[in-house]
Amino acid sequence: MIGKQIKGKGFRGCLDYVLGKKGAYIIGGTMCGQTAEALSTEFAITRQLKPHLKIAVFHATLSVDAKEKLDSDAENDRRWCSIADDYMKAIGFDNNQYVVAKHTDTEHDHIHIIGSRIRFDGTVVDDSWDYYKSQEVIRSLEAKYSLETIAPSWESEKRAQTTAEYRKNRDSGQKSVRVQLQSLIDECVASRSTMPELIERLQSEGVEIKIRMTRTGCIKGISYQLNDIAFNGTQLGKAYTFYGLQKYRGISYDSEDNELLKMLTQQQEAIADSHELQRDKSLPETNTHTDTISVDLITSDTFDTDDSNLSKANPSMRSLSLPRQPNPYKPTEQTSEAKVEQSSQTDTIIAIALDALITVSSDRQTLGQYNILWNQPQLTLSIRAIDRGEILKAAFAPDGTYQLNACQITELDIKNFQAFGKQQQQRQIQLELD
């Protein structure tokens, strides 16, 4: 059995998506409503118990192979209800509102569970490490209900595509960047070379490599970037981490090569910066004058690591003033009122991005010229502009609060996302009228 989880702010958008699918119907849960509107009203009751909780929505999907569907629809629905109840209680939703809906739009038998993290007594379900807890519960449910055991993607050597990536590949015939990177790395490791040789080969194929080192000079992680889209090793699979390349792909590594590895990656960064500078110079002046926003930048490790202690290291904070173009060396000043306004604008962008992900029940979504990525294991949200790369990255805490790891949003980004939000509201209003 495969399980996915995502959390968000808005119940109505999530309910509209889940119940709006052709052939979808409610099979269980702890609620009375039978429509998105009625259920949204019910969820609002417990939400009043924690009005300041930002991330109140829990949305999970559970699916099994097509061959594991019971012949009788009634018996199959009863089994799914039992599985859903056991699953929710095991992950801490033992005194919560939730509704279970069945989808029939794919060959794989699956259900959606939408729940409130707020219990009836006003406490909130702790969602720290929930992805790993969920996998443990799923393994026990597979044994209890005699279902086929499917290893989670983070345990496999190669991580599978997301649903959104699969659909994009199917519709456009274009392989996702994740698959392209996996294929390129597989080709380059075929000769079982050294780590510097592997990096040089990947760089010659247009892959940008970044290596993360500790203060003592030990390498703790590696990331890959292709077509302005980056993945760390863990996101590609455990065989693509720095340690995994050695263990699973036979790449030899000597710590004496660290200086050479650092030089190779720094040379590539210098070349990339040079290309970016040339590109900016070639743009018309009307395109180079863009107002940006001053923010507090929180730096943290965005690379994979095989050392659990390192991965839990506290991030360091420093204040960063993002400049106005075209004078890149003169920092801007910002009043306290502007900081409050900027914080509100950032909240708006993040809220719209999360709602967009929930609407399609995926960890990837595209809004106009923006690509949105939710990393469930790391609880990070990344927003990339097609023409500029990553413009925002936020790391979430279990209580739903977040910190900015990076932010380079412009006034145009804010206007674009506000427009997306208005479009979403109009769609919801139209659904209510229909």
Topology of this protein?
Blueprint: E1 2-8, H1 11-20, E2 25-29, H2 36-47, E3 57-64, H3 73-90, E4 96-103, E5 109-119, H4 130-144, H5 163-172, H6 177-188, H7 195-204, E6 208-213, E7 219-226, E8 229-232, H8 233-236, H9 242-249, H10 258-282, H11 285-288, E9 295-299, H12 308-311, E10 316-320, H13 336-360, E11 364-367, E12 370-375, E13 380-385, E14 389-396, E15 402-407, H14 411-433
Antiparallel strand pairs: 1-3, 2-4, 3-5, 4-5, 6-7, 7-8, 9-10, 11-12, 12-13, 13-14, 14-15
Helix pairs in contact: 1-2, 1-13, 3-4, 7-10, 13-14
Pfam family, one: Relaxase
Organism: Aerosakkonema funiforme FACHB-1375
Protein name: Relaxase/mobilization nuclease domain-containing protein
What would you note in describing this structure?
The protein is of the alpha+beta class and 434 residues long. The protein has three domains: 2-150, BirA Bifunctional Protein, domain 2 (2-Layer Sandwich), CATH 3.30.930.30; 163-282, no CATH class; 295-433, no CATH class. Helices cover 41% and strands 22% of the residues. The chain is built from 14 helices and 15 strands. The protein has helices at residues 11-20, 36-47, 73-90, 130-144, 163-172, 177-188, 195-204, 233-236, 242-249, 258-282, 285-288, 308-311, 336-360, 411-433; strands at 2-8, 25-29, 57-64, 96-103, 109-119, 208-213, 219-226, 229-232, 295-299, 316-320, 364-367, 370-375, 380-385, 389-396, 402-407. The strands form four sheets. It has a five-stranded antiparallel β-sheet, sandwiched between helices. A hairpin with a 5-residue loop joins strand 4 and strand 5 (109-119). Helix 1 packs parallel to helix 13, helix 3 packs across helix 4 and helix 13 crosses helix 14. The chain is globular. The two termini are 36 Å apart. 30% of the residues are buried. Residues 280-341 have low confidence and may be disordered.
